[in-house]
Amino acid sequence: MTTIHIPRIDPQSAMDRNRPVNALLKSQILHLHEAERRLPVRHHTDIYINAIKTEGEAGEYIRAVTEAIHDAHAEAAARRAKRAAKKPEVIDIAAVADDEPVGKPKSDGKGKKKS
Amino acid sequence: MPAGLDNLRHIVVLMMENRSFDHMLGSLTAVNPAIDGIAAGLSNPDTTGALVQPQPLAAFQGQLDPDPDHHFPAVDLQIFGGDTSPGRVANMQGFVKSYFNQQEDVGHSQKIMYYFAQNQLPVLTTLALEFAVFNRWFASIPGPTICNRAFAHYGTSFGQVAMNVFYEKEPYKSIYERMVAAGHTAKIYYYDTTSSTMEVVNLLQNEPQLFATYQQFLADCASGSLPDYSFVEPNYNDHDGDDGEEVANDQHPDHNIQAGEAFIASIYNAIKNSPLWPNTALLVVYDEHGGIYDHVAPPACIPDQFPAAASDTGTGMPFLFDRLGVRVPAILISPWVPKGTVVSGRTFEHASIPATVTKQFLGSYAQRTAREIAADTFVDLISLDVMRQDCPDFD
């Protein structure tokens, strides 16, 4: 079995937060901005995307919107779960209302006005 | 059915950024002549008319700056050498000319022909020699990242040849949505939230539960709980993470190539050291060539049903998606793949990814684009009946 050594890089020499954003990151920012516009206002960032020039700045915006999307969906899921938890009571009441009253004859529907 | 294929339960795709086949793996022709890389007689003219040959002088970082143009009009020049006549033939003679257009520096433009020596890329070249390397895996579009990655997710880019926002069109669903709807599991693992995903407006925005992080990928491997299908995205930017400095490892020019080597090795190690190794196939592939030289002319292909108008291509000509993009590195890794496999005589593109995952997990599935239906699939390469014990280790 062959063992290959993985290259070790020096993060200090490879890393450059001030590198200008490339076309791919610019595009990613625009896609995230499109998504941000659809978020509830309370999840909007206050970052002006036209002023993003470096990878470090791009990363801050990318992180903020990505987390906001996850947060907004988590909030919606929590609300949905809360509504679902309340639902059995409503079903019980509705079920009682739908029960036929004892002794009341079934309606044949005749004589009802259509609304 | 071979035992290897019978054991296949998980497919993982790692899609890196912007490097051509010849640039990354071209050196391997000297090791195995069946690999269609750099050979004698290849060249491109520079703007003085001098012929520039490929040379093993590629650098890990700092050489391809500015980022070589790989938008649709530039790739058209790279493939056709500037010929815009109706009967033109792809000749791969416009790479140096295209790079010259960015700085008008003849010497600098020649660097687009540089490739890596084998010993510079120990991870990628070892994987290519140890498992199955594809001689003909092409980008889906002669254009940039977003539309090419779309083919990996949807089997189409819905008419996009650029980086613009696009939306899914009925009835075509992403491979992840198809899998989940059929009761299977699928995930996109982005590196972290500061790098995030390139699949924002359709999937992240509407289906965030499909996403997890690289750290979760490592944990899912270790616990043997990978989804049926996983798509892994690298780190697209330099940033500070929770555990310190995170160097971009996507290999997009001008990001550090060795950081990408380490990332590829980490994905391989995570699978190989997990209980899922006998049941998992890993495809390492690049989204497009990034404007960097390759010598193989992209072939014609079945048109997609979403054409791009002349006003959208930037060339003054419409595009019917009837030609593939430039060739990229692609390697299929599994302990059931014969050592030293070179896949020749077949053509693959990124639509081969959803086509393969669909075939493996869903069987027949009608609502796919013509391009995806026509795309070749690759799990048949998992052909051994006895699992290999000689697969390499990376440390």
Describe the structure.
- The complex is a heterodimer of chains A (115) and B (395).
- With 115 residues, chain A is mainly α.
- Chain A has three helices and one strand.
- In chain A, helix 2 runs parallel beside helix 3.
- The longest helix of chain A has 44 residues.
- Chain B is α/β, with parallel strands linked by helices and 395 residues long.
- Chain B is built from 14 helices and 15 strands.
- At the A-B interface, strand 1, helix 2 and helix 3 of A face helix 6, helix 9, helix 11 and strand 15 of B.
Describe what is shown at a glance.
The complex is a heterodimer of chains A (115) and B (395). Chain A is mainly α and 115 residues long. Chain A has helices spanning 11-14, 23-37, 55-98, and one strand at residues 3-4.
Oligomer: heterodimer
Tally the beta strands of chain A. 1
Helices and strands of chain A, in N-to-C order?
EHHH
Can you tell me the overall shape of chain A? flat
State which percent range the strand residues of chain B make up: 5-15%
Strand content of chain A: under 5%
Query: What value does the average pLDDT of chain B take?
Result: 97
Number of strands of chain B: 15
How would you summarize the topology of this molecule?
The complex is a heterodimer of chains A (115) and B (395).
Chain A: E1 3-4, H1 11-14, H2 23-37, H3 55-98
Chain B: H1 3-6, E1 10-16, H2 21-25, E2 44-45, E3 51-52, H3 72-80, H4 95-103, H5 106-109, H6 122-130, E4 132-134, E5 137-138, H7 145-154, H8 175-181, E6 186-190, H9 200-206, E7 211-213, H10 214-222, E8 229-232, E9 239-241, E10 244-246, H11 257-272, E11 280-286, H12 310-313, E12 330-333, E13 341-343, E14 348-349, H13 352-362, H14 370-374, E15 393-394
Parallel strand pairs in B: 1-8, 1-11, 4-13, 5-14, 6-7, 6-8
Antiparallel strand pairs in B: 2-3, 4-12, 9-10, 11-12
Helix pairs in contact in B: 3-4
Features:
heterodimer; A: about 120 residues; mainly alpha; disordered C terminus; B: about 400 residues; alpha/beta; two-stranded antiparallel ribbon; about 30% helix; about 15% strand; globular
